[in-house]
């Protein structure tokens, strides 16, 4: 797919003096051609709510069943949309995601499967990444990339894994073609003269062979009657005589879950861990308590460590252990696993540091100033480390795709409050560093994605007064005007910070 610009973010030229409580100053980073989102989930949610297909949720739209109606067959759908543009959400032009959304509505009978449960929210790969949480499992079965696809399957390519689709891709399968797959695909062919979305989209939905390289796998519709009219289930007649009422069953209280990486987690003085769900619109919903005693936590991170689309907790404790708390789809966490010992004096930050890594590992800053990367190949204990730098004494590190090149970057605060960007290359090395701000000598610098919109990213900074301020970033890595989130985090230990 072609690269696209984000319509809702204006490019910033020159240095931008940021106002607000922190008094930090953000400096310009050389712009990189940004890759915009494929889906505007806020617009999609509003559309579905208006049609009566809404489902509960704070910051991500889950799959919604549509009212019973005659559904199209796969062949009829392909005939209807071949050589046409479709823009299902009304934003960012005709993306590959829009064809998927139309297919779900017309053939499968669902809508609004979220892309937010993903390291790359807003892109087609988020459908695959969030399979266990976004409602897709109700309608589709995940099929491996090595399987032979069938007509009606949905092919999904990974983010950043193949040059033909650098920001992921999805298409509707027509037939297998060996090392290629024959699909109906949008935004993956040359633009037509009558393109209604110039500068946003390339070609319309067309039949073409696409290489399988970089495939995450396929979604296979579960219903054997996909494409046939749906029939409401029969309704049982009421009983003719009064029935005694049964005592309500006793059920365990549901545990909260981390809805997205934009959620803020914090431990209070009593050792209670709280989740503050992000609204996706720059705010926070009511907090929820996580069971357990977290008083011994030094730092903790929310990350999909196991690669199943569900966010986990990686926590460093005051005994030097690092423990993994696997997240559950229904909420809460499984029993912890010790994945490291002897980490008492080491700062950590999760990162998928190399493009070849399938899972995130840990970036680690040692007391002697060395910087190491510990890969995570199995979703559990880490593999042998590799040294990636030295001389990091006194620096505080965090990781974010700052400059929109699909590679993880290290954001570092030095003791004087200067903010530095160390761009990752995707090969386990750094590009040329640059200074991107000053006045950041505060506490709790958090990198976040999706906090102020589906494809948003930025930094959250806590001041000495425990006020949280959000510093938005454009896709190309330029700061915009900050705003305050909350002043209610005094004496709280924030996760996702050093």
Report on the architecture of this protein.
- With 498 residues, the chain is mainly beta.
- The chain has four helices and 30 strands.
- Strands 1-2-25-24-23-22 form a six-stranded antiparallel β-sheet, with no helix packed on it. The chain has a six-stranded antiparallel β-sheet with strand order 5-10-6-7-8-9. Strands 13-12-11-30 form a four-stranded antiparallel β-sheet, with no helix packed on it.
- Strand 6 and strand 7 form a beta hairpin.
Record the SSE blueprint.
Blueprint: E1 16-17, E2 25-26, H1 41-50, E3 64-65, H2 74-81, H3 96-108, E4 110-111, H4 125-129, E5 140-144, E6 154-159, E7 167-177, E8 180-185, E9 206-211, E10 215-221, E11 264-267, E12 273-276, E13 288-290, E14 297-303, E15 312-317, E16 322-325, E17 337-340, E18 347-351, E19 361-365, E20 371-374, E21 386-389, E22 396-400, E23 409-413, E24 419-422, E25 434-438, E26 443-449, E27 457-462, E28 468-473, E29 483-486, E30 493-494
Antiparallel strand pairs: 1-2, 2-25, 3-4, 5-10, 6-7, 6-10, 7-8, 8-9, 11-12, 11-30, 12-13, 14-15, 15-16, 16-17, 18-19, 19-20, 20-21, 22-23, 23-24, 24-25, 26-27, 27-28, 28-29
């Amino acid at each position: 797919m072609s690269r696209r610009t984000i319509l809702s973010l204006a490019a910033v030229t020159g240095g931008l003096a940021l106002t607000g409580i922190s008094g930090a100053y953000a400096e310009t980073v050389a712009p990189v051609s940004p890759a915009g989102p494929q889906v505007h989930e806020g617009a999609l949610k509003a559309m579905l709510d208006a049609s009566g297909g809404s489902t509960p949720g704070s910051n991500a739209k889950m799959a919604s069943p549509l009212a019973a109606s005659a559904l199209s067959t796969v062949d009829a759908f392909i005939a209807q949309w071949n050589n046409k543009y479709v823009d299902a959400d009304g934003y960012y032009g005709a993306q590959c995601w829009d064809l998927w959304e139309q297919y779900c509505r017309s053939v499968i009978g669902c809508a609004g499967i979220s892309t937010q449960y993903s390291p790359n929210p807003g892109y087609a790969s988020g459908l695959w990444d969030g399979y266990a949480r976004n409602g897709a499992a109700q309608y589709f079965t995940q099929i491996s990339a090595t399987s032979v696809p069938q007509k009606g399957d949905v092919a999904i390519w990974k983010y950043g894994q193949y040059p033909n689709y650098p920001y992921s891709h999805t298409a509707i399968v027509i037939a297998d073609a060996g090392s290629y797959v024959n699909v109906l695909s949008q935004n993956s062919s040359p633009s037509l003269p009558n393109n209604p979305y110039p500068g946003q989209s390339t070609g319309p939905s067309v039949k073409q062979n696409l290489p399988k390289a970089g495939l995450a796998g396929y979604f296979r519709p579960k219903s054997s009657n996909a494409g046939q009219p749906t029939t409401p289930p029969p309704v049982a007649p009421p009983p003719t005589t009064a029935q005694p009422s049964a005592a309500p069953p006793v059920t365990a209280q549901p545990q909260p879950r981390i809805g997205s990486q934009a959620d803020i987690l914090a431990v209070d003085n009593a050792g209670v861990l709280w989740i503050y769900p992000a609204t996706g619109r720059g705010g926070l919903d009511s907090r929820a308590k996580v069971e357990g005693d977290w008083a011994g936590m030094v730092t903790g991170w929310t990350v999909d460590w196991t690669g199943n689309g569900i966010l986990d907790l990686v926590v460093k404790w005051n005994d030097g252990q690092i423990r993994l708390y696997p997240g559950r789809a229904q909420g809460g966490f499984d029993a912890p696993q010790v994945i490291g010992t002897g980490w008492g004096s080491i700062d950590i930050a999760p990162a998928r540091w190399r493009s070849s890594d399938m899972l995130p590992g840990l970036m680690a800053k040692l007391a002697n100033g060395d910087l190491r990367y510990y890969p995570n190949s199995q979703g559990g204990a880490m593999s042998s480390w590799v040294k990636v730098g030295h001389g990091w004494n006194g620096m505080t590190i965090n990781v974010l795709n700052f400059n929109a090149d699909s590679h993880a970057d290290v954001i570092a605060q030095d003791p004087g409050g200067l903010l530095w960007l160390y761009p990752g290359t995707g090969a386990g090395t750094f590009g040329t560093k640059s200074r991107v701000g000053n006045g950041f000598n505060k506490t709790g610098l958090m990198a976040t994605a999706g906090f102020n919109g589906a494809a948003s990213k930025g930094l959250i900074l806590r001041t000495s007064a425990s006020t949280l301020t959000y510093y938005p970033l454009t896709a190309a890595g330029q700061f915009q005007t900050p705003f305050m989130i909350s002043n209610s985090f005094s004496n709280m230990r924030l996760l996702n910070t050093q």
